[in-house]
Amino acid sequence: AQSVAQPEDQVNVAEGNPLTVKCTYSVSGNPYLFWYVQYPNRGLQFLLKYITGDNLVKGSYGFEAEFNKSQTSFHLKKPSALVSDSALYFCAVRVYNNDMRFGAGTRLTVKP
Amino acid sequence: DTGVSQNPRHKITKRGQNVTFRCDPISEHNRLYWYRQTLGQGPEFLTYFQNEAQLEKSRLLSDRFSAERPKGSFSTLEIQRTEQGDSAMYLCASSSTSGQPEQYFGPGTRLTVL
Known about the structure:
Low-confidence stretches of chain B: none
Structural class of chain A: mainly beta
Mean pLDDT of chain B: 93
Number of strands of chain A: 12
Structural class of chain B: mainly beta
Helix content of chain B: under 10%
Number of strands of chain B: 11
Radius of gyration of chain B: 13 Å
Order of helices and strands of chain B: EEEEEEEEEEE
Low-confidence stretches of chain A: none
Largest sheet of chain A: 6 strands, mixed
Strand content of chain A: over 45%
Shape of chain B: globular
Largest sheet of chain B: 7 strands, mixed
Helix content of chain A: under 10%
Shape of chain A: globular
Oligomer: heterodimer
Distance between the termini of chain B: 34 Å
Strand content of chain B: over 45%
Mean pLDDT of chain A: 92
Largest interface: A-B, 23 and 26 residues
Order of helices and strands of chain A: EEEEEEEEEEEE
């Protein structure tokens, strides 16, 4: 079955430091992978996606993600975290019928 | 703003009552999805439309749940005889078959069943 896993419930980083939010996937065939961010009482906002091509994809707000086929990972990264990046982050994979399977989410807290 | 909109944003109801939520997708998007999200969890797929056709329904969608998209534009999700376990955030998303595969989400409707 197509699925993603986010092994960390919580990630804490200091403002200005690099951040990484981890995601691993389990899919048959070539995966379509996504990252979304959710602020309190809001819907999900699309950050970036991987379909094919370069393994490093760039998205909104300075975020990027690295697709690693051998490790079946799609980690979200940012070189310098901001306090305003504090939110809930979801990794997702698109399944055959076009809906998406989401991970349980990782709460990112960036401390000043 | 041409994003996905959902109404109402909040709904409080008593157990056993029926509720209906509305979703207006991005106008040029022909695919529309409903998800349910409970606290501390990622969104779970409920159902999906392409134009007016409902193409997929999750096993999570019990007989008390029904969704429609009569003209291929807005959609409604109705829950009959609500139960406390139905309390959740109901999210709607839309995407295009001709464009990029990502889905764009609305702000959600938070349902509380007392």
